[in-house]
Amino acid sequence: MPIKTPQEYVESLRALKINAYIGAEKVESPVDHPAIGPHINTVCKIYELAHNPEHEGLITTTSHLTGHKISRFTHIFQSTDDLMCKIKMLRLLGQTTGTCFQRCVGLDAMNATYAISYEIDAARGTDYHQRFKNYLIGIQDNDLMVAGAMTDPKGNRGKGPSQQDDPDQFVRVVERRADGVVIRGAKLHNTGGINSHEILVLPGTGLKPEEADFAIACAVPVDANGVTLIFGRQTNDDRKTQGSNVDMGNPRFGVVGGEVMIIFDDVFVPYERVFLNGETEYVGQMVTYFATWHRANYGGCKGGNADVLIGATAKIAQIHGVERNTIVKDKVIEMIHLSETCYAGAIGASAAGYTLPCGSYMVDPMMANTVKQNITRNIYSIGRLAHDIAGGFLATMPEEAAFDSPEIGKLVRKYHLCNEGDDVMERVRYGRYIENATSTTTLVEAMHGAGSPQAQRIVMLGLGDLKGKIAMAEEVLNGDSDALGLSIRGQVVTGKTD
Ligand code: SF4
Ligand code: FE
């Protein structure tokens, strides 16, 4: 089957019989619900660009399994060039939609499953890798959207999975049958879960040998029996149902990826969809593989989102007549610098990638973690500068209806106008975009998506080779010779001193 069109994607979602809630309300057709519409539009943009001659080279590629043309969102990374193309694709999509486009979690979860299933099979003689390849070919050939489901509720954070008062705080196997397993638990913060076709469940943390029931990686159709999806609340999401496009900030695509809580209430998973089952010693590596790829992503997607935010801020500066002010210009430069630093790190992490035992490619872990650590700061700083330049009206504007009111609209417009002949609503639209694109939901996603800041700092310390760095310092300060024979006083000593 060729790459899906946006229409085919939407129709394929409509055909699913999912058990979904928005708030406390069960929703028969999430596709037609205003809370979900922007997130579906965003994914439609990916399907659309895959058919655009200008961008199809980036959005699509060739399957190493079948030779078929596939979406890059279903591809196993085959080279450092593939890794860089992914980052470039994420930036393009971030620039095109101004928001999270959701498909990357599934992509990185599929790559982690591909890599670790190979390693388990090599050591244990299991057949997880072939099972996963069969599953993946189906995903690639049908161009399906896969939601990666990693984060367990975790209960008491001071205790591991097997020590919880309620063992369901981590997804686990509750029954083993001849033809499959039954899983129970929940995964939180699942980007794009409500508008995906499949859920790829991975463990979210390293496990001890006695925690084998929690060591489960498997694929579940989003409409499988026992799966319940509960859509997450977002900052300002009431505005989606209040009839104002302007107040939504980014009415077409939303200002964040749609997040969903997924409950697995005794869901049966046949063995052909099980890719890790009890091998606790491989779980930590699997989580690390996923997190490392995903942390590099943020330099691409948030770099693209920052481009749109910087553009909206510069536009407001123009409307306000301050675009030539050197202080304003310098703040815009700072925004660009903060964003490009993240993108450069993501490209660097990809260029310095290396081959895994299965033959696929991993990004440089130190650089990937540095990218994500920068994101946890730089996105806040970019938002701060956007607020600084644009001004307080971001937080105090009346709602859109006031601008159209027969009673007060004329005066509301008069006092929001900057220049005779301006379209006052243009200023309002860009202001609302900045307000929503820097909202709590967006910032918290930048902070905690792909792992909280401390998770990156632990990796950075582990890979930082402090012993080696101390040895470097010792050699620089205590070494007594070098090629030029420099003396300790900095004089070049060209021959023997005696
Ligand atoms: Fe992709 Fe970025 Fe959204 Fe994560 S936050 S799913 S990397 S767009
Ligand atoms: Fe994310």
Features:
binds iron/sulfur cluster; six-stranded mixed β-sheet; 14 strands; 16 helices; globular; alpha+beta; Butyryl-CoA Dehydrogenase, subunit A, domain 3; 46% helix; single chain; binds fe (iii) ion; 498 residues
Q: What does this entry look like structurally?
A:
- The mean pLDDT is 95.
- The protein contains 16 helices and 14 strands.
- The protein has a domain at 287-466: Butyryl-CoA Dehydrogenase, subunit A, domain 3.
- Strand 1 (20-22) and strand 2 form a beta hairpin.
- Helix 8 (326-351) runs antiparallel to helix 9 and helix 9 runs antiparallel to helix 13 (424-437).
- Strands 2-1-10-11-7-6 form a six-stranded mixed beta sheet, with no helix packed on it. A four-stranded mixed beta sheet has the order 5-8-9-12. A two-stranded antiparallel ribbon has the order 3-4.
- It starts with 5 loop residues before the first helix and ends in a 20-residue tail after the last helix.
- The chain is α+β, with helices and mostly antiparallel strands and 498 residues long.
